[in-house]
């Protein structure tokens, strides 16, 4: 007998298949967050301020492309569903444009900057075209919030593994492929991650289903947008997500500079194949993985909103503590960083599960499933936050007189410490406090789920 999609549970295979998609995403986003600013300044020779400005200016395109892609995906009709087809169609363009970003041709200073603007804009458009539908898929993969939280858990387990792979392997691979030629090393390393991304996105496409089948979308773009803007919790979640991602990416974008110029311990192998930068990044990402693993258990004990607030506040405290750790206490820095990223693993898992809760709230209020448009906010917050978080360290480096590959002044070292610890702490604190205004609590969500399940069961039986 065919199982009612209103109550159907996700298989372990499908949870893994869905989760793998974010591993493919984080092969790129993790790589960009950890190494793109370093690549532009220390490897390809773009000034920190120019690179930072580029990362911000290109977000104008994203401000349009994310909701536009959500609207397009919501209106897509195919034999594979609304959102899954983009995992199949966009994987290869996504891979090729990632390679283009690290091509590093010999150009004038102006030519390099122009190339950076074009290549970064294109790769982020490809990221939008594949990841907005991927995120929206979570909202239709199951009508049960608990099942979506479990799928989100798998998503961020594999997201953590993807970024962990980058953190642990990228610099050693750059050295292995490039030797003394760091530019060649980056170019060949991204080829490896590009090929893996294509294969994994196709696995996600093959192993997932769209259980919630909304009616053909007949409302106008204006009607959908107006309905979305009336969802106050969605607005709070979007701005909180931006602040949180800014804090995380500012921290990660600073680590290569922090270990090289403040800790003074960037050179040589420290553990197994890893230098000290790779090691601290890897330990933090193990913490993120553990955070994602424990999140469903934490959700059973408390409200998502409360967990979000406290996890962000704790991360802020740990970052402030890290600011006061002296350069010689490397192990203490690793421990504080890892504990902080553990809390982020909890936060990011909750954040994306709560976006789908907002999508359900919108369907409950309006009768229209606009998962693509609603969840596109998650991608906008991720990309905009990543851009701002990656750009701010560049501006701070320029402001405090940083000069690449030179012994730094006391002022420059202070700037590196501020951008690595104090600045991220401020953003995590702000993101956590903003969640006070989020209104979809556990009781409200249970009511929404029950009423939507009744509607879907009636449609199924009809």
UniProtKB/TrEMBL annotation:
GO terms for biological process: carbohydrate transport; sodium ion transport. One of its GO terms (molecular function) is symporter activity. GO terms for cellular component: plasma membrane. InterPro entries: MFS_2, MFS_trans_sf, Na/Gal_symport. Keywords: Membrane, Transmembrane, Transmembrane helix. Pfam families: MFS_2 (PF13347). The chain crosses the membrane at residues 20-40, 46-65, 86-105, 117-144, 156-178, 184-205, 234-258, 278-299, 306-329, 335-355, 384-402, 422-440. NCBIfam families: gph. Belongs to the sodium:galactoside symporter (TC 2.A.2) family. This is MFS transporter.
């Amino acid at each position: 007998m065919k199982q009612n999609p209103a109550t159907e549970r996700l298989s372990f295979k499908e949870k893994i298949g869905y989760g793998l998609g974010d591993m493919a995403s984080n092969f790129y986003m993790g790589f960009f967050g950890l190494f793109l600013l370093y690549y532009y300044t220390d490897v390809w020779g773009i000034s920190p301020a120019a690179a930072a400005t580029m990362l911000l200016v290109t977000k104008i395109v994203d401000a349009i492309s994310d909701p536009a892609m959500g609207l397009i995906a919501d209106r897509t009709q195919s034999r594979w569903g609304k959102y899954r087809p983009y995992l199949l169609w966009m994987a290869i363009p996504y891979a090729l444009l990632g390679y283009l970003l690290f091509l590093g041709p010999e150009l004038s200073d102006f030519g390099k900057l122009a190339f950076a603007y074009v290549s970064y804009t294109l790769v982020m458009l490809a990221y939008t075209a594949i990841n907005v539908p991927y995120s929206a898929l979570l909202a239709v993969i199951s009508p049960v919030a608990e099942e979506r939280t479990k799928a989100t858990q798998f998503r961020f387990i594999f997201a953590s593994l993807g970024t962990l792979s980058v953190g642990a392997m990228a610099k050693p691979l750059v050295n292995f492929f490039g030797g003394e030629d760091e530019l060649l090393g980056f170019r060949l390393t991204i080829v490896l991650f590009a090929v893996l991304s294509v294969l994994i996105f196709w696995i996600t496409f093959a192993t997932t289903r769209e259980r919630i089948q909304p009616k053909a979308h007949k409302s106008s773009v204006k009607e959908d947008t107006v309905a979305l803007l009336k969802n106050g919790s969605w607005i709070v979640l979007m701005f909180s997500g931006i602040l949180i991602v800014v804090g995380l990416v500012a921290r990660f974008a600073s680590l290569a500079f922090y270990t090289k110029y403040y800790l003074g311990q960037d050179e040589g192998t420290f553990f197994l194949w890893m230098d000290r930068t790779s090691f601290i990044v890897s330990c933090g990402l193990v913490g993120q993985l553990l955070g994602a693993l424990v999140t469903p258990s934490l959700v059973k004990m408390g409200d998502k909103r409360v967990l979000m607030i406290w996890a962000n506040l704790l991360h802020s405290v740990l970052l402030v503590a890290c600011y006061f750790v002296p350069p010689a206490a490397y192990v203490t820095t690793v421990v504080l960083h890892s504990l902080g990223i553990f809390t982020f693993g909890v936060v990011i898992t909750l954040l994306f599960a709560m976006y789908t809760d907002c999508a359900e709230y919108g369907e409950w209020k309006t009768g229209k499933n606009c998962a693509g448009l609603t969840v596109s906010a998650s991608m906008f917050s991720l990309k905009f936050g990543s851009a701002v978080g990656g750009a701010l360290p560049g501006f701070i480096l320029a402001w405090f007189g940083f000069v690449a590959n030179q012994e730094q002044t006391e002022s420059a070292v202070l700037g590196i410490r501020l951008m690595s610890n104090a600045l991220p702490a401020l953003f995590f604190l702000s993101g956590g406090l903003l969640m006070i205004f989020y209104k979809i609590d556990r009781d409200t969500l249970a009511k929404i789920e029950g009423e939507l399940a009744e509607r879907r069961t009636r449609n199924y039986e009809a």
